[in-house]
Amino acid sequence: MSENDGARSMPNPFRPLIGFGTRAATATLKPIAGAVEAAAEAGLGLERRAVNRVLESEELERVVVVAINSVHIQAALKQALESDGAQQLVDTLFDSGLIDHVFERLLASESLWHMIDEIAASPAVTAAISQQGLGFADEVGDQVRSRSRKADDWMERTARRLIGRPPRVLPAEPDAST
Amino acid sequence: MGGVTAAGPGEAPVVAAPAQPTGYAGLATRVVSFTVDAAIITVVDVIIGVGAALILSLLHIPHDLRTILAVIGAVIYAIGSIAYFAIFWSTTGQTPGARLMQIQVLTADLGPVKPKRALVRCVGVILAALPLFIGFVPILYDSRRRGFQDQFAHTVVVEAPGPSIAEVSRAKKRAIYEASRRPVSERDALDG
Predict the structure, then answer these.
(1) How far apart are CA A138 and CA B99, in angstroms?
(2) Cα dist. A158→A6, A42, A129, A155, B54 in Å?
(3) pLDDT, tens digit, for every residue of A33-91?
(4) Which residues contact B95 (CB under 8 A, 6 or more apart)?
(5) Does the predicted model carry a pTM greater than 0.90?
(6) Which sequence spans correspond to the domains of chain B?
């Protein structure tokens, strides 16, 4: 038997006192700990409500609009986009082959071709194409009409000059007041 | 000024006779208009002719009968061509070529052309073309730009500016779109 075992087995006259003190301290601090916990939770709830109110407020919208319209921010953005760093970033993105990979995957995708077929067959697109065709035909028609009218006048002037007739008198414009 | 005006959805464009012509169509404009019409007639006739020839090639037809069929085909071609012009002149006053060139055939007093007068004008066109197209020369110096066929049938060819085919198409589509956006109750009230 060692010396320590002898000391442990020896009765401690302060042990009841220590136990009593611990229980007293626990009982005393328990309400305080609860109050601290409740205060922390209340603080978190308050913070969430504050964030929600800020996000829902018109003031935030105004701040964002002002920030976007700000000359300084626009200048800073422009500077950032024109900087060498931005160009290097774009170069790196393309050099990485990520873009090629994305396009390869897109072109291999059945859904993409299905979507293109749907768009090509949509009434809006077919109407736009037919309108463009008609617009082109109109343009050609306008040109032909304009040139044929000039040719009419030229031929008439020449013919009348050859047979010694005066130029044709154009019909009078209708009077707007009558 | 008259011409073709956009009509409501599902309705045919309305052709109105001009109250006062802005001008008379000259020789070059009429030649272009006639060329377009001739191209249309030729394309249709070629399609019909090739179809008929293919069908007849399957049959064993004697030579004489073949000649008779060719004559019948030529007569049908001539009648079809005359009918083409006569029908367009007596309905809208504009053949497709005239529609493209925005010109219109009217009577000398600017009224619509009747079928009989349209047929007379067709005959006038043939008579004007027979002597090396001399009958069309008066268009160059006549005060109302009338050729032999116009003097023969008492007609004039006036300029009829109107909306283009694309504009009419756009107007129709817009009308259909606006009609589809109207409330159902309003549409019912308009329909009935």
Answers:
(1) 12
(2) 144, 101, 43, 5, 50
(3) 777 788 888 878 888 888 888 788 888 888 888 888 888 889 988 888 888 988 899 99
(4) B33, B36, B37, B84, B85, B88, B89
(5) no
(6) 19-159
Give bridge partners of residue B104 from the DSSP assignment: B158
What is the rounded distance in angstroms from the CA atom of residue A112 to the CA atom of residue A104? 12
**Min CA distance, A175 vs chain B (Å)?**
11
* B170 reaches A (C-beta below 8 A): yes
Q: ipTM of the assembly?
A: 0.75
The pair of structure tokens assigned to B34 is 């006639």
Whether B145 and chain A come into contact, CB under 8 Å, resolves to yes
Q: Residue A134: list chain B partners with CB under 8 A.
A: 164-166, 169
Question: Which among A141, A152, A165 has the least Cβ separation from residue B100?
Answer: A141
End-to-end CA distance of chain A: 139
Which token pair is A167? 């130029």
